[in-house]
Amino acid sequence: MTRSATALKRILPIPAVPTEPRPSRTRPVDLVFLSQKTGGDRQIERDVLALLRSQVALIIQRAPHATRDEVRQMACAIRGAGRHVGAFAVAESAAELALAGDDRYAGAYAAFMDDLETTARFLKSLD
Question: pTM for this one?
Answer without folding.
Answer: 0.79
